[in-house]
Task: inverse folding
């Protein structure tokens, strides 16, 4: 088991990573506690802290809806929840997003605990305090920054996660290693079998702990994305989001950012921002985890014009420049204000 504290915006966030730790980790909560989890995890949550109230929902993107969120609020209100009480999100990124949102607005904020159950949730979605719900079918329109007091990554949950969810979650893990943590890159370069095939407990625990530490270290320096530091977490995401748009959102996020990281590393090397060899490092590690490094490897055909057109709507565009984090060498990065025209050209070339 691994445990550490991070201070973010004056709040202490405790992280615990380990096997079979959820019940014990929650047992110290004081006040009323509501567990929110998806129906698919009903059996797994059965034995956990039977004294707690429970709220079961269907997960997936349809759960991240304002109306669904208000139904949970309604339940909490009927049970008399107040600011001293706790809400625990047990599930993937959709559950942590919706429960994070509710906990931040209910009586201006009650104690939030997140227990992610997917690899993506453990290494990314549950980490960093961003939450969001969709509104009128537009993703994450409503959301806040709100840190949990406790993150419990219980690796027992991963035993039922389909293989492809592990592979796809690894894209975000690899991202941290490329732009933030060379030592982690070297670790990942030696442990593909242990992670994907054997699902070695100790190795997976290390992967999750290191990813959470790397992400929280960035978030603690720039919680609200105002200092130009948190943007590093966007590596691979500018072109990744364009790929998602060009596939009408049928390509999985992890696969899209895998191709996105490849394209963005190529831009960095071709424009002279990085040392030679970064493209080889990026493509080698992604391929070794079975992740795609070109649009041909994606199951869906990408509409390149649609993908390129979406770049101008990127949240990081400022007067025809796009703020992008690019790797300079393994474990290091810099911010580049990329002319939109240049980015359009590179994207078209990389996806053709
Ligand atoms: N707030 C953030 O910073 C942030 C970051 C990245 C992603 N996200 C959000 O996260 C969401 C995606 O998260 P996700 O990939 O975890 O998806 P998800 O929550 O939809 O879960 C994926 C599927 O896995 C199932 N599942 C969950 N745990 C399981 C387990 N232990 N065993 C078997 N099946 C299990 C779920 O029932 C679901 O069908 C998106 O909505 C995305 O916007 C948020």
Result:
């Amino acid at each position: 088991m691994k445990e550490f504290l991070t201070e973010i915006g004056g709040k202490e966030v405790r992280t615990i990573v380990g096997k079979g730790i959820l019940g014990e980790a929650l047992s110290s909560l004081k006040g009323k506690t509501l567990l929110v989890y998806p129906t698919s995890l009903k059996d797994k949550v059965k034995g956990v802290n039977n004294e707690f109230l429970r709220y079961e929902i269907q997960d997936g993107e349809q759960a991240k809806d304002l109306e669904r969120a208000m139904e949970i609020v309604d339940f909490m209100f009927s049970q008399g929840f107040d600011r001293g009480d706790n809400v625990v999100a047990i599930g993937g990124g959709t559950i942590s997003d919706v429960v994070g949102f509710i906990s931040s607005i209910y009586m201006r904020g009650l104690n939030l605990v997140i227990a992610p159950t997917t690899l993506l949730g453990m290494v990314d979605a549950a980490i960093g305090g961003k939450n969001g719900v969709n509104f009128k079918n537009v993703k994450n329109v409503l959301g806040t920054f709100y840190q949990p007091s406790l993150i419990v990554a219980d690796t027992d949950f991963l035993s039922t996660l389909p293989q492809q969810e592990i592979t796809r979650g690894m894209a975000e893990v690899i991202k941290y290693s490329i732009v933030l943590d060379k030592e982690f890159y070297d670790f990942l370069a030696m442990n593909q079998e242990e992670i994907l095939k054997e699902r070695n407990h100790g190795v997976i625990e290390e992967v999750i702990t290191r990813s959470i530490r790397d992400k929280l270290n960035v978030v603690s320096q720039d919680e609200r994305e105002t200092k130009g530091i948190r943007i590093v977490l966007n590596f691979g995401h500018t072109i990744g989001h364009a790929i998602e748009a060009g596939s009408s959102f049928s390509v999985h996020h992890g696969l899209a950012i895998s191709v996105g990281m490849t394209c963005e590393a190529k831009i960095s090397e071709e424009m002279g921002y990085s040392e030679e060899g970064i493209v080889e490092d990026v493509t080698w590690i992604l391929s070794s985890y079975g992740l795609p490094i070109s649009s041909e490897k994606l199951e869906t055909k990408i509409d390149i014009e649609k993908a390129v057109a979406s770049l101008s709507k990127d949240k990081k565009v400022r007067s025809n420049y796009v703020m992008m984090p690019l790797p300079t060498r393994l474990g290091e990065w810099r911010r580049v204000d990329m002319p939109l025209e240049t980015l359009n050209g590179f994207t078209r070339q990389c996806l053709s």
The mean pLDDT is 96. Residues 164-352 form a domain with the Dehydroquinate synthase-like, alpha domain fold (CATH 1.20.1090.10).
